[in-house]
Amino acid sequence: MLAALYLHNRRAEHSFDLVPVAIVSLGAGIVLFLGYLLVRRLLTYRCVDDENEYLGGIRLQPDAKSVLAGNFAGLPEERQIKVGPPPKTVQAYFCRSERDDPTWIWTKGSLDAAWWLIVVLYVVTMLALATGLCAMALELHEDQIEVTETATERVVSIPTTLLFDFDSATIAKGSDGYLETVARMIADANVQKVRVIGHTDGFGEEAYNQRLSEQRALAVKDWLAGRGGLASVNFEVSGVGEKEPKHRETDEKGQDQPEARHANRRVEVIFSKP
After folding, report:
1. Residue 268 in contact with residue 153, Cβ under 8 Å?
2. Is the pLDDT of residue 1 over 70?
3. Each residue of 215-269: pLDDT tens digit?
4. Number of other residues whose CB lies within 10 A of the CB of residue 157
5. In this predicted structure, what is the pLDDT of residue 12?
6. How would you label 101-135 residue by residue, b for 16+ Cβ within 10 Å and e otherwise?
7. Strand-strand pairing, 266-272 and 153-159
8. What is the DSSP track for 172-225?
9. CATH number of 146-272
10. Is residue 196 a contact partner of residue 268, using CB atoms and an 8 Å limit?
């Protein structure tokens, strides 16, 4: 499931937030693990003179109930407690009985149910914890701003998944932190001219991609000039659509390469090196 979500994020222009998945899964895993430990403690038994651990059942045999209640009337000879005091607990009775035959104490069906309960709890617990850890790892692997430099310029490439929802040129909620980082970089460079260029992948109609790239570049420029405090900077805004990909989007056999398409969807902010 997580692999499918990750591939979906790379193929589409919008990302699925894996942080809630990680938090919920890890929380559920911890609760399930505590439940597993409790159930295991309640359903397993150890005896003082025996290092082995034995699995008990959920439902007692009728004769076993009578023994623990101290009622020996009508019980078969083998159930009579002739040496020592009568057992008061299930564990005490079990440890004084034939341990290789737990059906002496519990019903066969309840022993099977106890085994399946522990196994299922363990498997579900491990799945929840694994899902949470994988989701967190995938989230940490998600897109980040990329900064490269030429001899004279600094190129800040922002994946569109960090800024926009699918098929949108409106800055998405939660994107301010990324643009604030870019704004600080521009301010620290103390430049007066900045180019903002929008890019798309090659999926869809060329005219549509061209328009979307222009709109997204303009949205980034408006944010930087307004909320980014860079109103005095001269911004040059343009969109090139699918015309300047960073990577080839199909391999030699013509097969689609989602990672390449994902990397091609970006907005570049370019300014002189300080």
Report:
1. no
2. no
3. 999 999 999 999 999 999 999 999 999 999 888 877 777 787 777 888 899 999 9
4. 18
5. 45
6. ebebbbbeebbebbeeebeebeebbeebbebbebb
7. antiparallel
8. PTT-HHHHHHHHHHHHHHT-SEEEEEEE--S-S-HHHHHHHHHHHHHHHHHHHH
9. 3.30.1330.60
10. yes
